[in-house]
Amino acid sequence: MEIIKREAKSIYTRSKLPGIKYTINQYVGCGHRCVYCYARYMSRWKEYGHWGTWIEVKTNAPELAKQRVKGEVSMSSVSDPYQPVEKEIMLTRKILENMNKDTKLSVLTKSDLVLRDIDILKKFKNVSVGLTVNCFPEKVRKILEPHAPSNERRIEALKKLNKEGIKTFCFISPVIPELTEARKVLRETKGIVNYYLIEVLNTRLGGENLKKILKDRFPESYEYLRDKEKMRKFVELLKHYVEEKEVPLAAFVSHRRENYYKE
Ligand code: SF4
Predict the structure, then answer these.
(1) Is ligand 1 within 6 A of the CB of residue 108?
(2) Which of 175, 227, 178 is nearest to 200 (CA)?
(3) What's 27's domain CATH number?
(4) What residue numbers bound the domain in which 24 lies?
(5) Of the residues 47, 70, 159, 206, which has the maximum number of CB atoms within 10 A of its CB?
(6) Is residue 245 a part of any domain in this protein?
(7) pTM: predicted TM-score of the whole model, two decimal places
(8) In this structure, are strands 167-175 and 195-200 parallel, antiparallel, or unpaired?
(9) How far is the CA of 24 from the centre of ligand 1 (A)?
């Protein structure tokens, strides 16, 4: 993994995400190397090589984080603030140390490394920490999210955060028919998260490589991408289940029109 250091002009980027005023992406690129990563579109504007082979580090991000902003800040939208390189660089930790603790902050990661920073997170007046959990069977996770911690570790992290009194959320994503065990996620995180975000796979942003992997390795899932009606029913059933169970839901993003494609 090539580490590219550079200075940024600003670290708070205006966001179009619902309810979010700013996003912070102290890293561009991500060592978790999920094959469906939507953030890979960032590499279109970079000349460093293939997505997943480099990470851009905004070295002055901690200094820039001192700026005061109003409105909810989300960390991060196109990278993971607790990807492997963070263990050594501690950029996220330094940013959190420097941020105004009155800032409404939400942090999203796939890594239990976030537990390292519980002490600083607790200093924020309004913070929520989310873990992406999809309960892929381990052999599937090793193909789709090769360098991310196991789902068990992510659930364990949610438990610890909850125990520490930190507001938590669970991002069930990407929901891939036949692979994502959304019902299992809901069962195993019940009572330890305050709210859920659910997102069905966006095949367009997931890229051609993902489609090929699904086609070759998981044809039963790939079938849903080809069959619009099958996918529609799948999404409806999941929605119905979530409503029936009265899951505290903050968002359900289906990307329904994009969940299939023509060959
Ligand atoms: S953890 Fe998130 S940002 Fe990192 S590779 Fe996976 S999907 Fe992309």
Answers:
(1) no
(2) 175
(3) 3.80.30
(4) 2-258
(5) 206
(6) yes
(7) 0.94
(8) parallel
(9) 15
